[in-house]
Amino acid sequence: MRKYAMVIDQRRCVACMACVVACKKENDVPPGQFRTRVIEKVEGVFPEVRMELRSELCNHCENPPCVYNCPTGASYKRKEDGLILLKKYRCVGCKSCLAACPYDARYINEKKGFADKCTLCEHRIKEGKEPACVATCVGKSRIFGDLDDPKSPVSIALKENHSEVLLAGAGTKPRVHYIKIFSKPE
Amino acid sequence: MTAKFSRRTFFKTSGLVSAGIAATSMLPDKFLLWAEEKGMLQASQIPTYCEICFWKCGALAKVINGKVVKLEGNPAHPGSRGKLCGRGNGGTGLLYDPNRLKTPLINTGTRGEGKYKKASWDEALNFTAERMTKIAKKYGPESMAIFTPTDHFLPLISAFGSPNVGMPSFAQCRGPRDVGLELTFGDSIGSPERLDMLNSKVVVLLGSHLGENMHNSQVQDFVESIGRGAKYIVVDPRFSIAAGKAVKWLPIRPATDMALILAWIHIIISEELYDKEYISRYATGLDELRTAVRDYTPEWAAKETDLKAADIIETAHMLGRRAPAVCIHPGRHATWYGDDVQRTRALGILMALLGSWGREGGAFFATKASFPKVASKPYPEPSRPALNLGGYPFAGGEGVTQAIRTATITGKPYPIKGWFVSGTNLLKALPNQKETMEAIKQLDLLVAVDVMPFDTVMMADVILPECSYLERHDALAVGKGKSLTVSLRQPVIEPMYESKPAWWIAKELSKRLGLASYFPWNTYEDKIKSQCSLWGINYDELKKVGTITIPDSSNPYITPLNQPEFKTASGKIELYSHELKEKGFDPIPVYTSHEKPEPDEFRLIYGRHAVHTFSRTTNNPELHELYPENEVWINATKAHSLGIKNGSYVTLINQDDVKISHIKVKATERIREDCVYMVHGFGTTSKELKKAFAKGGDDQGLVTKYAVDPICGGTGMRVNFVRIGKETINA
């Protein structure tokens, strides 16, 4: 079995938005909507300032509230690799998943009436390519791979560094991991 | 007669095939991608190179059924290495921007009124050629100036007989930097800069906000070097993206940078941290330098720069102890305060003392390999001298734009009556828009060649619509980094609307001006092919891969066998410049204190945003939605004390009472209290840019004052002060 995941090394992100634009083009995301974004968070008072740049996207949770809350069975977790995907023909656009997702990762495609979100570019993975955001990431901040493969770039990155997930307390067990500033203590 | 109909011929005869194609071209990209995945449509990957900025990254265009659905980086290209930045990814936004210039246009109203009639190419080209000929007859061919001499229009204007070419990239951008480094090392740093950041232990960014300044491969090096443990010292009044990655952020008082650099030099010399062997072997003027910087102590600099003396000393030690693997980034847009050549000289001297020029982790040497020059018909010698050096002794490069502007206004020493403007938005690029408008009033002809109806385009008498970079051939791009590369720009789809490639426009104009012999080829592709055969490049291969790297064995660093050559007057690195002394300038940089803002004023500083290239991308739908309007950054504490809320709209009024209204406030801890910051390029006045029109504020509108560098003519533009006025009605 595969366990696809993403690691975001925030030390290497410069908020250039290449991922955001590449994702939109790759997946034909409607104007004004996004499957991924980059957040700027500033702490402190001049001149003692710290800044966090954080790419956010669907966390492809192991405990996906969007799937649990979908009344039609449109949202599902794919057995073979754990990706959270959507059968568009079953979606009625009720927005339960939007409300359930603690990461604000979903949107309703207004033109077509279904919920939509990041698929980790499942169509590209199938062809042996990286997701579009990873492929274009100028800082190599986004890292993609299979957690079940100890030699994959994600496994290596997680082994070598301390990492966190977003809203760990929500119990969703996200598969997007963040490397902030500090390496693993030696 | 029995006709045999296959399904295919039936479609053909009934016209359904063409109807089908017309319909698919309107289908969303996702469907096309899906159809391609299912094997219903064939996607082609066509290599070319990007033009959303000037880094010229290799790109692969994915084209399905005549539509460009996606752009990706070309792994073979050294500028992109398989990755495009946000802007490069958004290149299709330019291609499919509904506001593109679609047909030639001739002005029917008064200039600048924006009243145009559609014209045929023949009409528009005849109009242009007739007016140009008239100017040449009445005033001489030198009275026709060109802004941004491209590969196509520079030959045209040179053949026409005018030497008056100007490009804002010199006097409004890199000029002082290049001149400063040339005076010191006999060579500039190139573009892309030959910086060995990947191998640096310490990097200084002084006025370079990499990450917001998205120079693809350089940003890749920047981030990779951080990954490898390089320590960044970022000098910036603003907590830039790069400052966020730095071990040391020095929030310097704007306009005092030279004090910091001179203090670093002072410490490095007085504590003997400089590379003695390197300096004694390659440099001249150390004794004079030692005397000249004697008083530039860290304590003195601390007062000037509003930094702590201890920080200045600590950072100097970081530099000295890690030398020579120290990269001093000389910046790019260097036209700040009018003493910019001297500031770059100071940076160059610092590089020399650290021995980092020509060393691993510092600045490397470009490959010695090169391509043979392509012979062309010699251009006529102009009978009057060029005005584009403006009398500045070290002006050069792409010319001093504002000197041409001044001559246009005054008519002296001879009149300039025609402007040929291509690929630059002069109203946004040059300081003091009033002067630009005044000059435009004096013209008999203003021709604009562009893809989009930018501000300056909308002032033109005749507009010639160029197709975008994805629809045309351009000159081969030769890259000189550690190795020599050649890249091809080729059309990935046919030109849309009635737009035409610039080479075609230039060639057609040449016919009408009797200059056809300067364009002795049928298509630009023919020209490229013959160039390739001269250079020993397989054109078919180049067409397929986009970029070819020529293998060579040049060593990028100084070694006992690879000794550097300095093309200065003395043949050495000039810490003390005899050339400057001769022309009456300081041979060693001297600190000058610049005017400071009054208590109710802020110094206006400006820069870039990662998804925009000046004003050129502001209407691009794919980039516009990420950053539709710029903001004015105000220190949060200061804003609070003035009662200005984050997200509210204010008016900015400069020292000459020029006002821009309705700009959004970004109240942030990321900037000093004595300055405000804006992303450059917004607030267009062109109503034809439906998305960008009147969005954000035009920083250049507030730059009415500029300090000209007497050495090279660069226009220092960070010398304007603004006051903030609250707006009563919020949008």
Task: Give a written overview of the molecule.
The complex is a heterodimer of chains A (186) and B (731). With 186 residues, chain A is an alpha+beta fold. Chain A has a single domain, classed as 2-Layer Sandwich (Alpha-Beta Plaits), CATH 3.30.70. Chain A contains six helices and nine strands. In chain A, strands 8-1-9 form a three-stranded mixed beta sheet, covered by helices on one side. In chain A, a hairpin with a 4-residue loop joins β6 (107-109) and β7. The longest helix of chain A is centred in the N-terminal third of the chain and has 10 residues, at 18-27. Chain A is globular and about 50 Å long. The model of chain A has no long low-confidence stretch (mean pLDDT 94). Chain B has 731 residues and is α/β, with parallel strands linked by helices. Chain B folds into four domains: 7-95, ADC-like domains (N-terminal domain of TfIIb); 100-167 and 368-466, Rossmann fold, CATH 3.40.50.740; 191-365 and 558-582, Dimethylsulfoxide Reductase, domain 2 (3-Layer(aba) Sandwich); 602-726, Barwin-like endoglucanases, CATH 2.40.40. Chain B contains 25 helices and 27 strands. In chain B, the strands form seven sheets. A seven-stranded mixed beta sheet of chain B has the order 5-4-15-14-13-6-7, with helices on both faces. Chain B has a six-stranded mixed barrel with strand order 20-24-21-23-22-27. In chain B, strands 10-9-8-12 form a four-stranded parallel beta sheet, covered by helices on one side. In chain B, β4 (105-107) and β5 (116-118) form a beta hairpin. Chain B is globular. Chains A and B meet through α1, β2, β3 and α5 of A and α3, β3, α4, α9 and α23 of B.
